[in-house]
From TrEMBL:
One Pfam family matching this protein: Sulfatase
Protein name: Sulfatase-like hydrolase/transferase
Family according to the record: Belongs to the sulfatase family.
Stored CDD domains: sulfatase_like
Keywords on record: Hydrolase, Metal-binding, Transferase
Gene Ontology molecular function: metal ion binding; sulfuric ester hydrolase activity; transferase activity
Gene3D superfamilies: Alkaline Phosphatase, subunit A
Length: 469
């Protein structure tokens, strides 16, 4: 395709946004008019999930998968390294990133917002960037930021003036207003919202009446058993056992952050329209992972329940059908090949990423048969489109959970003791073992014929060791 006819790409990556926390999807509380409009003008994949993480900072490896289109064990550059850094995941220099690949095809690549991977991968991916937060989390009103050249040269960060979502979206608007239209652009706009600290600015801090917010239908005061990660930082943000009032307060602030960044994104999309760029721009909205925030007695994302592994995934623009809500299962890392095909950029071979364009064109009924997710060294899950098995190994003990997601999407009823499901369990275990072996899951000791659900002894390690493993 001639360069001038290739679509622009605006890729928005949220932080901690659950897949169900969008108004037009039927959420009973949260207001998201910008995202609602984006869905009406485009397509949402309602069953999109991440592959997971080997560290508690789920953001970093999930973003590495998204950026490289590779499975977790490839994308995580420290999978086989000891000790590993505490919060970022370096991307192997031999792996081309999504923005880097578009840069190589003469796109102007620009970054603003959160970058949770290594600095060199950012430098090779983008031509320019401003107000970049290089890290995992910070106060929203005191975000330390640098330019891309500042990251390259190792200059210290400076605290930005303003609230995180406003800073990043204002920077995106400035780029759009000054963009040279002779070249297509690829913009990485990565928010730190709605990640904690959950401190929405006025008037969004009082937008939701916490006393009237319904609790999640799968709310529990405590998780029913030790999943290996009940004392992680995220789970200590509220006391145990959880109370309804506590979770309502967390939800009010969480929804406030989402509605605030939704409004900020609305200004970015308005700018696209004013500058005549809207019709030629593919807009993507995706999150790096979900969040429990009261579901199953948990607060964080260090688990493999649906609320934590499923993410919103919205596409709009050239080549994307309007008003389509697809229930096809997908990984968020499928974005790599999808954007390539939509942009008529050659699709890179040998990636885990698969293009979703056949689904957009209604020419595919069977995308993938089975999906896998990972958390640290002691949780694994496998999902076949209906049945989902979660495997735990903590302190030498093993535990399995089985859910029928067609009948029980909130994972309320564990079917593992149902004798009629034994064949299903074995089939899923066999599938998991094959996937682990083929993809080099580092927790499997292939020389000792370890059972497919026996992972490693990581659950007995301290929190500090878990961050450094």
């Amino acid at each position: 395709m001639p360069l001038e006819k290739r679509p622009n790409i605006l890729l928005v990556v949220a932080d901690d946004h659950r897949a169900d926390a969008i108004g037009t999807l039927g959420h009973p509380v949260v207001h998201t008019p910008t995202l609602d409009g984006l869905i009406e003008r485009g397509t949402i994949f309602t069953n999109t999930r991440i592959m997971g993480s080997l560290i508690p900072a789920v953001c970093a490896p999930s973003r590495a998968c998204l950026l490289t289109g590779r499975n977790l064990f490839q994308a995580d550059g420290y999978t086989y390294c000891e000790p590993r850094p505490s919060n970022d995941v370096p991307i192997h220099p031999e792996y081309v990133t999504l923005p880097q690949y578009f840069r190589e095809h003469n796109y102007e690549t620009f970054i603003t917002g959160k970058w949770h991977n290594d600095g060199p991968s950012a430098v090779r991916s983008f031509e320019s960037g401003r107000n970049i937060f290089h890290g995992g989390m910070s106060p929203h009103d005191e975000v330390p930021v640098r330019s891309l050249s500042g990251i390259k040269e190792g200059r210290p960060a400076k605290v930005a003036e303003g609230f995180s979502s406003e800073v990043f979206c204002n920077t995106a608007i400035d780029f759009l207003q000054n963009h040279d239209k002779s070249r297509p652009f690829f913009m990485w706009l990565a928010l730190t919202s709605p990640h904690d600290p959950r401190t929405p600015p006025p008037p969004y801090d009082t937008l939701y009446d916490q006393d009237s917010i319904p609790l999640p239908l799968n709310f529990l005061p405590e998780h029913p058993f030790d999943n290996g990660e009940l004392s992680i930082r995220d789970e200590l943000l509220a006391p145990h056992p959880r109370t309804g009032k506590t979770i309502q307060k967390e939800l009010a602030d969480y929804y406030g952050l989402i509605s605030h960044h939704d409004a900020c994104l609305g200004r970015v999309l308005d700018c696209l329209s004013r500058t005549g760029l809207e019709e030629g721009t593919i807009v993507v909205y995706v999150s790096d992972h979900g969040l429990a925030i009261g579901s199953h007695g948990l607060l964080g994302k260090q688990n493999l329940y649906e609320h934590s592994v499923r993410v919103p995934f919205i596409l709009s623009g050239p080549g994307v059908p309007k008003g389509l809500r697809s229930s096809h299962c997908a990984y968020s890392l499928d974005l790599f090949s999808t954007l390539c095909e939509l942009s008529k950029v050659p699709v890179l071979p040998n990636l885990e990423s698969r293009s979703l364009v056949p689904i957009l064109a209604d020419k595919s009924d069977n995308f993938r048969d089975v999906f896998f997710s990972v958390y640290s060294g002691f949780q694994r899950s496998v999902y076949d489109g209906r049945w989902k098995l979660i495997c735990y190994a903590m302190g030498g003990e093993e535990r399995l959970q089985l859910f029928d997601l067609l009948e029980d999407p909130l994972e309320l009823y564990d079917r593992i003791e149902d004798g009629s499901c034994s064949a299903i369990v074995q089939r899923l275990l066999d599938s998991l073992q094959e996937w682990q072996n083929v993809n080099g899951d580092p927790t499997i000791n292939k020389n000792e014929n370890v059972a497919p659900h026996r992972l490693v002894q990581s659950a007995s390690l301290s929190q500090t060791q878990l961050y450094n493993q």
